[in-house]
Amino acid sequence: MHIQIYDTTLRDGAQGEGVSFSLEDKILIARRLDELGFDYIEGGYPLSNPKDAEFFQRLAAEPLKRSKLCAFGMTRRRGMKPADDPGMKCLLDARTPVVTIVGKTSDFHATEILGVSLEENLAMISETVAYLVSEGREVIYDAEHFFDTWKSNPKYAAETIRAAAKAGASLIVMCDTNGGTLPEEIERVTKEASVTVNVPLGIHCHNDCELAVANSLAAVDAGAVQVQGTVNGLGERCGNVDLISVMGNLALKKKGYEVLAGDDVQHLTELSRYVYEVANMNFRNGQPFVGASAFAHKGGMHVHAVAKAAHSYEHIDPAAVGNERRILVSELSGRSNIIALATKHNLAQDKELMTRVLDEIVDRENRGYQYEAAEASFELLVRQLAGDFHPHFKLDRYRVSVGSQSNETVTEATVKLAIGDDVFLEVAEGDGPVNALDAALRGALVKRFPSVATMHLSDYKVRVINGEAGTAARVRVIIESQDDEDSWTTVGVHENVIEASWGALVDSIEYKLCKDDGGK
Amino acid sequence: MHIQIYDTTLRDGAQGEGVSFSLEDKILIARRLDELGFDYIEGGYPLSNPKDAEFFQRLAAEPLKRSKLCAFGMTRRRGMKPADDPGMKCLLDARTPVVTIVGKTSDFHATEILGVSLEENLAMISETVAYLVSEGREVIYDAEHFFDTWKSNPKYAAETIRAAAKAGASLIVMCDTNGGTLPEEIERVTKEASVTVNVPLGIHCHNDCELAVANSLAAVDAGAVQVQGTVNGLGERCGNVDLISVMGNLALKKKGYEVLAGDDVQHLTELSRYVYEVANMNFRNGQPFVGASAFAHKGGMHVHAVAKAAHSYEHIDPAAVGNERRILVSELSGRSNIIALATKHNLAQDKELMTRVLDEIVDRENRGYQYEAAEASFELLVRQLAGDFHPHFKLDRYRVSVGSQSNETVTEATVKLAIGDDVFLEVAEGDGPVNALDAALRGALVKRFPSVATMHLSDYKVRVINGEAGTAARVRVIIESQDDEDSWTTVGVHENVIEASWGALVDSIEYKLCKDDGGK
What we know:
The structure is a homodimer. Mean pLDDT of chain A is 89; it is low at 467-471. The first copy, chain A, contains 17 helices and 16 strands. In chain A, the strands form four sheets. In chain A, strands 1-2-3-4-5-6-7-8 form an eight-stranded parallel β-barrel, surrounded by ten helices. In chain A, strands 11-12-13 form a three-stranded antiparallel sheet. A three-stranded antiparallel sheet of chain A has the order 14-15-16. Chain A is elongated, with a radius of gyration of 29 Å. In chain A, 39% of the residues lie in helices and 20% in strands. Chain A is α/β, with parallel strands linked by helices. Chain A has three domains: 4-262, Aldolase class I (TIM Barrel); 296-386, no CATH class; 394-519, 2-Layer Sandwich (Double Stranded RNA Binding Domain). Chain A has helices spanning 23-35, 50-61, 86-93, 107-114, 118-134, 146-152, 154-166, 183-194, 212-221, 243-253, 268-279, 300-308, 335-344, 351-366, 375-385, 433-445, 497-516; strands at residues 4-7, 40-44, 68-74, 98-104, 138-144, 171-176, 201-205, 226-229, 296-297, 326-327, 394-405, 408-419, 422-429, 456-464, 475-482, 487-494. The longest helix of chain A has 20 residues, at 497-516. In chain A, helix 5 packs parallel to helix 7 (154-166), helix 13 (335-344) packs across helix 14 and helix 15 crosses helix 17 (497-516). At the A-B interface, helix 4, helix 9, helix 10, strand 9 and helix 12 of A face helix 1, helix 4, helix 9, helix 10 and helix 12 of B. Strand 11 (394-405) of chain A pairs antiparallel with strand 9 (394-405) of chain B, so a sheet runs across the interface.
């Protein structure tokens, strides 16, 4: 059975803390969802802001190809004909095939928050739906606080959805607005609602109890034909249900359901990362199905088993959602992790090199290196051991100093290095010692390698490895860098945090220069 | 009904990508879980590394008060008596009241991965459990790949848990090792398993389908009495089930269950953040129940309604889990923790001081300070605001430099400070800039305050707060110090890591001096 996927990333998702889409962002995401064949895409709330109104004009001029576009709004204002309500006008001006209307299911919210009588609330639902239908729109009705009200006042809850159904809504969406409903309640209420109205049901869940995916699946099993949610679970508080997980489960885990056009779930990983990119948010590594860690194996026993039979510790083939297996190198792992990583980098053929790599990694891990989050350093190390690494520059010396007096802090770094036969001495100030060193190092290098100007450090992490020796302990620095195309991570370890940072910094820049040489 | 909470943050959680606990980290977390009354705490896998073995020795010397400590291991090696297996010796040497043994449920894993016959696998389970029971241990049996095997070969799966039960295991834990099982399958299999053995059942879920919480609750509803998981859902791939969400649901949402000692769920937010801090990981804002956004309201309609009636868009009272409502967009976190902390320090009586403290903390949190894991800095700040702080020394200036040439790194710090009317100028070398500064500072102070010689820094953590600016971002440094009697933690924040470290260092030494004065 085909389950409709209704995306509200651009409307409810944008309510999430730290989420803010520009008009162009919204259009990019809508086009991408359309390419993947999402059934419905809710584009925004045209009455609430001009950006959303403009979005609909842009899409009216160049419509979506596969998905139905929805404009979102509320029931008409109290004591007013729909035709006179500016909200209705905005919705019609959006020129979408579908309009989604949210209404009050809760008697408490109708009378106490909105301040209208229970009868007027029913009239608002009914007249709004009927008006939009008469204007040629497909109308989806979102029943706010549906489950909470079904538990406290089932009679009135039923009246509200009957009003919407009778007025011509094509679908009634049961909203778990506060995210507090449990799967067994979702199942029971969905079954009861499905015999209350003669219109198909949809489900709209929030993740406040970490049950949004289970709740959406429970509603589908109980008869709902549409799931509303957002890509990556963006949304207010703990987020809306993550449609990625919903689709992964419906298409690959549960029996008898289909989403999108079947094979399109192979693009879920790409979609997830695309939306994070456009929203300028960090990936969530542990995200089910599509996270960078979702098929990453660290424990030695697991790695050993996965090498023998991939399904040993994987519930699906990572490729089914466009993801990939990763083997992490770490203190917990046996040699099998390193072998797997080396195989990925096509090292396994050269047995003798492989042994050297293994020995070196084991030795370095004992000294505190960690390559699981530093594949760029790993690659440089392997090239070095293979005799295939030619450093672009040679450090003579560096020096960095930090001094503080009367609340003023001054940081200065000098770097002296050689590129071929030419010697460069560079000085720079910075906000901190690593920033100053980075500036001095790149200041020297950019004269010969202009492309280092296009990269920058995007994250910097420090970890004391054996904490018991206090500040004299060994320190591991992880640096993440990026240019216009890629991001990469490098590692440095030393007793001295500056020296450890320097190691990671040099690896990062060498990796960039190798990359630009076309060296793999 | 009381549901047992079994924490494996320190073992299975440590398998998570980017998770790496020092010995001290592990002890801190175990003590905190013990304070909250977790039923079982799995401390590690003593055979796998010396750090875990050392952890158990430390806890044997000073045992937990409320929780039962568990050592984790595998069934005995093939063709060997348990008494001859070095793994068993390690487990007994750990001197824990409980031993948790994982064994193969899967016929495939027994024969193809482990390479033993199906009969030998049963003997390995049975003899291992019986041996540890005969040595006076409570034995919990973890049945790996339990659900997958129950679906593919229910007869053999049943034989494995019967072998464990018959040999004296006190509890059989059904593991969804690959995280691919659906709630309806968990429910069915749990019911079937509960009539197969006469021993109580536990559940151990992973979150690969974003269903770990629903799965754990489904098992409890079907009769499981123990839930295994980790704080914040740390763990391999997509993580283990998050015990925070499990406990929130069992204690506050579902009927008829109790966890911990009832009221202890009020500390879940504090616990969650504490574990993130110790693990040096960022909080997850959208985390159910305890995330900083979990009760944050952004949509205008929601804010309006929440102002009228708090429960409008909240499924529980945030205070029930120690969290708080946030209306305006702000970076503030953990006000309730501040209040709790202030109450702990007997500040709550002085309303006016309390207000000043709150205002100052809010301001400092906006700048990146965090006092949840830095109580010594908090105490100094409060004393300062109460006019009850008299610094023991006054810094004139410091300077630290790091230089590297021909593989030799030289670090030198100078500190000039005044104690009363006397001025001290001191120089020291060190393994790193903070180590050198610490040495110079204490070198000056020890002349007047000999007791500073009895303290040392025991841990040092650095976190970039707004990572996107790379090395120029703001940096938070947390320093843990100890003397013969206590350990305490201080915080410093600055764009410059050296200046941030200096702030934490000075707080640490002032705290020590105040403490020795008998100052509270």
